[in-house]
Amino acid sequence: MRMAIVSTYRPRPCGIAVFSSDLRAALLEADSSLSVEIVSIVRDDPFSHPPEVVTTIRQDVAADYAAAASELNRDVDVVLVEHEYGIFGGDSGNYLLKLTSELSVPMVVTLHTVLANPEPERAGVLRAVCERAALLMVFTETARRMVVEQGLVEVDRVRVVPHGAPDELTQAAWSDGVGEELTGTSLQLGLPSLAGRTVLSTFGLISDSKGLELAIRALPTITAVHPEVLYLIAGQTHPDVITKEGESYRLGLQRLVHDLDLGDHVRFIDRFLSIDELAMLLGRTDIYLTPYRSKDQSVSGALTFAVAAGCPVVSTPYFYAEDLLCSGAGVLVPFGDSAKLAAAVLELLDSPAKMSGARAAARRVGADLTWANVGKATLELLTEAAQGVPYPGAVKRS
């Protein structure tokens, strides 16, 4: 079977790009006879592309979307579109409709964000995209319920497939996370020795949606009891944020660290980490933090990776965190409440039994998040679509 994934793609520094690269590898692992091509959504960038990228779509060039559809119609059996707000051009991403309206082969759409109350323009574009889809893929049951309640698709056209995590991270889940067991962690991450430190961490592309100032403001209360605590913030600033705002958010975080006299307790790792580096970071993390600001976040690759690596978590209650942590892998705290975040961290640090229970729960959940499992499930879904599952868009194109 020949398939194509329409998405941002490596080497573009973007979470969806990493996801699509990992998914392609998982699909080929599930069936080595597949042809899995990439249609990469790009900005004006200098990157060279790997051989699986058969064509590119310049994000803000409308004609590229129709041209890509024409090429896909000739060459593939099924198309998988990775949908995220902000990666498609036009008003509310409506250039994507120039591709979906021209496709004559079955299309599956993965929704990386499901908004509870989308703006009318965004909702209209997404509804039109979903109408053309043979099947819709979401990451959680909450997202499935939301898309059905919003009338985007009928319930029998939605499939839930979890976000995957690399094997390197599930292997890191079984390190004991104490001292310098992961040889060279400090050196390879460009840090002073982590021996004797209790490590909190957050990683990913940095923007103000991550709410990192909440975690930083919680640190004085935490370090008053546990002066050995070190908070590692890993990742470069999101390229779109740099374009619009420069490094103002990161600089604001650094000023906050200085103002709170936390220089010995916070380190920034200002780059996009490889999977091996993430495995080292998460294998050495005692508690992972996601103090995100928005309830609407319906998936988080970073949280998926942390749980797959066996990290206990303290998080704000965005949709994906509620779903992934309900097993006991973490503690939810209110949005914007640094005192509650500090209390949750201290509760875990001061209770070895609770910490151990959360780590065990994370390991159980992580065992189901391997890319091998996700690749097989996604292949089944794409095969179902390619074999002609009935859907309204197909009728309209006949």
Question: What descriptors fit this protein?
Answer:
398 residues; alpha/beta; Rossmann fold; 2 domains; 6-stranded parallel beta sheet; 13 strands; 43% helix; disordered C terminus
Write the layout of secondary structure elements.
Layout: E1 2-7, H1 15-30, E2 35-42, E3 53-58, H2 62-75, E4 78-83, H3 96-100, E5 107-111, H4 120-131, E6 135-138, H5 141-149, E7 158-160, H6 167-172, H7 185-188, E8 198-203, H8 212-225, E9 229-234, H9 239-245, H10 248-259, E10 266-269, H11 275-283, E11 287-290, H12 301-308, E12 313-315, H13 319-325, E13 330-332, H14 338-349, H15 352-366, H16 371-386, H17 392-397
Parallel strand pairs: 1-2, 1-4, 2-3, 4-5, 5-6, 6-7, 8-9, 8-11, 9-10, 11-12, 12-13
Structurally, how many domains make up the residues?
A: 2
Total count of helical runs of at least 4 residues: 17
Q: What CATH first level of the largest domain would be assigned?
A: Alpha Beta
Low-confidence spans: pLDDT under 50, at least 5 residues? 177-183, 394-398
Quick one: biggest sheet?
7 strands, parallel
What order do the helices and strands follow? EHEEHEHEHEHEHHEHEHHEHEHEHEHHHH
Average per-residue pLDDT, rounded, comes to: 91
Helix content: 40-55%
Annotated CATH homologous superfamily of the largest domain: Glycogen Phosphorylase B
- Alpha-beta content class: alpha/beta
**Envelope shape:** globular
Strand adjacency order, main sheet: 3-2-1-4-5-6-7
Q: What is the terminal-to-terminal distance? A: 22 Å
**Rg from alpha-carbon coordinates:** 21 Å
CATH topology annotation of the largest domain: Rossmann fold
